[in-house]
Amino acid sequence: MGGTAVVAGGGIGGLAVALGLRRVGWDVSVVERAPVLADVGAGISLHANGLRALDVLGVGQAVRAAARPQYTGGTRTPDGGWLSRMDGAALERELGTPIVGIPRADLHRLLRAALPAECLVVGAEVTTVDRTEPGRVRIPLDDGVLDADLLVAADGVNSRLRTQLFPAHPGPAYSGSTVLRAITEHPVDALSTDFAVTWGPGAEFGHVVFADGRAEWHAVLNSAAGVRHDDPLAAMRRRFRDWHDPIPRLLDATRPDAVLHHDIRELVTPLPSFAVGRIALLGDAAHAMTPNLGQGACQALEDAAVLAAALAAEPTVESALTRYDTQRRPRSQSVARAARQAGRMGQQLTHSMAIALRNTALRLAPSGVTVRAILRHADWKPPRLS
User: Fold this and answer.
1) For residues 131 and 150, is the Cβ–Cβ distance under 8 A?
2) In the prediction, which pLDDT does 2 show?
3) When comparing pLDDT for 42 and 37, which is higher?
4) What's CA 379's distance to the chain center, in Å?
5) Are 64 and 349 contacting, i.e. CB atoms less than 8 angstroms apart?
6) Domains, the chain, ranges and CATH?
7) Which residue in 276, 244, 89, 326 sits closest to 169, CA to CA?
């Protein structure tokens, strides 16, 4: 089955599903509200499930070539002590690949480069859809109307299309945490691990090293929603001034204007379906989750591969979207619940006794526990795209 599709949203999930649909014979237009597809953002870690999805979408090799494997790292305390370590080589033996780190802009650029330029419609936004004509969807834009057999809503955590399709749904909720992140201006010397996460009361600081030696850092903090700083970098220096090396060096290697700050919002109330008629929801529009497992983008990439495979295998769009919903909704919503729980037991803990019990449990756990925890979500087999 082939046809015409419109993808609302030109982020990682939207570009990925466009690649998948084209591989199974569909004509695709990606509609992105930004006037320019700028290469911005911080960093991203991709687990085996995300890389496997990229493989079937045709860009896995290019992404691996641009990324840095994460073989060494783990979880620490603010004084530098280790709570747990991750054996990236053991993970690679189990899954065929380690976790990799890549600037989000580089991943976006690689996905975009694999699509013909004429697929991308920038400076336009899909805010509504007309479903009155049987067998078609009509998407009004400022300069006309797009007719399609399929609409993919990949328009993010604040999806307007999700609101239109599910008006009674409460939408995204604030998680209680806010995140500041940046990529260092230059390589940072003598970083001893490929990545690390440090947990303190109500706070987390982590970093990922990229192939060019620069590093992405993130600081996740318990906070009221909407709190902002006049000088975010200075605020982070004050907040983490007593934490272990290399945290101060990472902050010192960062330009003040490079710091991004976002409140973390998630779909606490699960959607009843990822498909309505000829409309599929994908990525954050379908299952926005907290970043505590590093699975948000990976789940969007899974969505893209599964949706393309369903449309290739099923005789109708409606049956394909039923298959997509059946395969994707239970898994992605389970991962979202696990991410939420990981945050509550990790960065969000503030009570000293609870923190002490958690830290003791992590220190006493066998060395393979961390690998098994990652395998629980990363060991996913992608469908084949014909």
Assistant:
1) no
2) 83
3) 42
4) 17
5) no
6) 4-70+100-173+268-345 (3.50.50.60)
7) 276
